[in-house]
Amino acid sequence: MLSVEIKPDWFLRDARGNATALPALLSLLAAVSETGSISKAAVQGRMSYRHAWGLLQQFSEQFGAELVHKVRGQGTVLTPLAEKLMWADRRINARLSPLLDSLASELQQELVRVLAADAQGVRLTASHGFAVAALVAQLRNEGVTVDINYRSSTEAVAALARGECDLAGFHLPVGRFEEAAAASYRPWLNEERHAFLHLAYRELGLFVARGNPKGVTGLADLARRDLRFVNRQQGSGTRVLLELLLAEQGIDPAAIVGHDSAEFTHAAVAAYVASGMADISFGVETAARRFGLEFIPVCRERYFLACDRAALDQPLLAAVAAAMTHDRFRAALADLPGYDGALAGSRADLATLFLAGQTLSGQT
């Protein structure tokens, strides 16, 4: 099956305008960081030692700064500049991946339509997340064509109500805030028209640098003036939940340094903290672990996929539901820190939250 991938790329230019492409260099630096040796990094990157050394020397000569140096007892280590380049690359990928994945999916669908006019695919709109990415991978491995469009949870359920997608991803906190969080989805969902598939439970909490140098203990610390916070975008379910938590504790969002910032994924805010550009953020545990951050648990939530009830009995969505119950997929979710996929693919009863007869996209 035809597949389209789009990856971000970036360059550095010196004072004379000469460009240095970074992908190969960044891959080498990552291997040096892991192995503590240029020769071992070269082997890992399937290049000669001479070529690896040449990449490092070329950069040093062009920009007048070293990327690696020897430390007794540690071997070859990265300089602060090299570390910053690697964090910058991770931040670029974290911020742009949802956009590029959506664009790649659109282009793939267009090409598939040309090559196979009768081909059908599942249209999935959801906020960018680790469980959703795992599901897309599972479906594509099974030969199911997936047209993924990453948007906020509110935009996703609105797209479902308008018939723009087959599945919409959204999430609700477990416990006392479930009812309030569901309010933003009620204009678009109801139990009579829609069915809800359980995707996963996931843990949310605060992200802070390794070792917790600022001594953060909980949400109350967000009001501290010495902490720089990085937030999710308006309309994000995670941001809605955070504002409910802040209101409960009597914290004025305007008092939080950086509250008006906006990043579009959990990985993006984690990268922000990991790079030292912020001191604290709020998101899912997997993102914190992947960026080597400390994670302070705050709450748990459930992630669902909504669809039209009538469509769930059709072959395409039936295949999706079956894939979600597969042991391999549930094992993939279990490998994500903070995720629990034991109920993946099962039908969820949300009648008390989305009662039939409520307003749906301006209609009753």
UniProtKB/TrEMBL annotation:
Highest taxon above the source species: Bacteria
Gene3D superfamilies: 3.40.190.290, Winged helix-like DNA-binding domain superfamily/Winged helix DNA-binding domain
SUPFAM superfamilies named in the record: Periplasmic binding protein-like II, Winged helix' DNA-binding domain
A GO term for molecular function: DNA-binding transcription factor activity
InterPro entries reported for this sequence: LysR_HTH_N, PBP_domain, WH-like_DNA-bd_sf, WH_DNA-bd_sf
Residues in PBP domain copies: 140-323
Domain HTH lysR-type: 25-82
Record's protein name: LysR family transcriptional regulator
